[in-house]
Specification:
The protein is mostly helical and 349 residues long. The protein is built from 14 helices and 5 strands. The chain is 57% helix and 7% strand. A 3-stranded parallel β-sheet has the order 1-2-3. The protein has a two-stranded parallel sheet with strand order 4-5. Helix 9 (176-192) links the parallel strand 4 (168-171) and strand 5. Helix 8 (148-162) packs across helix 9. Bound molecules: tryptophan (TRP). Tryptophan (TRP) binds at residues 31-35, 65, 67, 70, 157, 160-161, 169, 171, 175. Tryptophan binds at residues 31-35, 65, 67, 70, 157, 160-161, 169, 171, 175.
Length: 349
């Protein structure tokens, strides 16, 4: 089985769903989420947050999980988790997520979601788990031994998606193996017991991936990420120390000039102009001028989000209420699904 076949099949499903969504968003339930390991950054924003807000505004039922149990898949501390979770809610709301329309909740507050893990684990084989390319990559990056939770977290992610009968999951390509695993679990459960679950489709974003400041994938752990919560000064500093090259004339060439090109793409996404257009305007003025332009465009773009963020930071009780209410609603839904599962399995005594 070539993995490209799977990718192409998933891309096709994604395109079909997008077409249906454009005609009629009713009947779609979106579930997606983030690990609360740090602050959300521009990579998250252009990669998925914008799309979540768009789906919410189109009337899709939208659900966002803050995947707190997923934090300990590859690390052995939860030291910053409280702060990270509250700041994640703040980031969502600052970007346009409305808690009246989008349910925001955490793994740890919804026990019946986690309980789905038991029947679901019985539906996957050891070799399927070991084959997952994303799990392999994450294990290598972690430098730790493969923990039982890291090995099985794609199944836990299936619980995240299926407890609320999510049928669309906006994700990056790296998450597609997990969606495939989720579809398989849903199919197997439905065949073995009773038709309870949908087979969800991964929605691939059309957005250009915003590179980190060094041209690699934007990631907090690479130190190349512009956090939504950073101040204008912190943003300026980060951009200033990003690595460019000694060529004075600015041109867009991602392979030969990753640093300069990453800056141009950042400016492009935050201004709506093309990279070539910006490059030719800056011309011989060099990377100093480019950095000044990028700093200004990023800070201008993020200004309304950051202003809203600062307001929300002043009202932590409200942020906690949002999370409480999301957790309460998620609990109800998870309990109803678990009841259906127990019924399907003949476990109602
Ligand atoms: N693993 C996802 C990530 O690292 C986060 C996540 C947790 C998620 N549960 C999910 C994504 C369910 C989609 C659906 O980005």
């Amino acid at each position: 089985m070539a993995s490209t076949d799977t990718f192409l099949a998933q891309k096709k499903m994604s395109d079909e769903v997008k077409e249906k969504l454009a005609k009629d968003p009713s009947g779609f339930i979106m579930l997606t989420g983030d690990r609360p390991t740090g602050r959300l950054h521009l990579g998250h924003y252009f990669g998925t947050l914008k799309e979540r807000v768009r789906l919410q505004d189109e009337g899709v039922r939208t659900n966002i999980i803050i995947a707190d149990y997923q934090v300990i898949t590859d690390r052995d501390t939860t030291a910053d988790i409280h702060d990270n979770v509250l700041n994640m809610v703040i980031d969502y709301l600052a970007c346009g997520i409305r808690p009246e329309d989008t349910m925001i909740f955490t793994h740890s507050a919804v026990p019946p979601l986690n309980q789905l893990m038991l029947p679901f684990l019985s539906l996957v084989s050891e070799s399927e788990l070991l084959r997952n390319p994303t799990v392999k990559a994450e294990k290598d990056a972690s430098g730790h031994a493969l923990t039982g939770l890291l090995l099985t977290y794609p199944v836990h992610q299936a619980c995240d998606i299926l407890f609320c009968k999510g049928n669309i999951v906006p994700v990056g390509k790296d998450q597609l193996p997990h969606i495939e695993q989720t579809r398989q679990i849903a199919r197997r459960f439905n065949e073995r017991y009773a038709p309870v679950f949908p087979e969800p489709v991964g929605l691939l974003t059309d957005a250009v991936e915003i590179p980190g400041l060094d041209g690699r994938k934007m990631s907090k752990s690479y130190g190349n990420a512009i956090a939504l919560s950073a101040t204008d000064e912190e943003t300026a500093k980060l951009i200033k120390k990003s690595k460019t090259d000694s060529e004075r004339t600015i041109t867009f060439d991602p392979d030969a000039r990753p640093g300069v090109s990453a800056l141009l793409t950042t400016a492009s996404l935050t201004t709506g102009r093309t990279e070539q257009d910006i490059a030719s305007e800056i011309g011989d003025a060099g990377s100093g001028a480019l950095k000044a332009y990028v700093t200004e465009s990023v800070n201008a773009y993020l200004a309304p989000i950051r202003a809203r963020r600062r307001e929300l930071e002043q009202d932590i009780p409200y942020i906690k209420d949002v999370l409480d209410e999301g957790n309460r609603r998620a609990m109800e839904i998870a309990q109803a699904t678990l009841d259906e599962v127990r019924e399907a399995m003949g476990m109602v005594y």
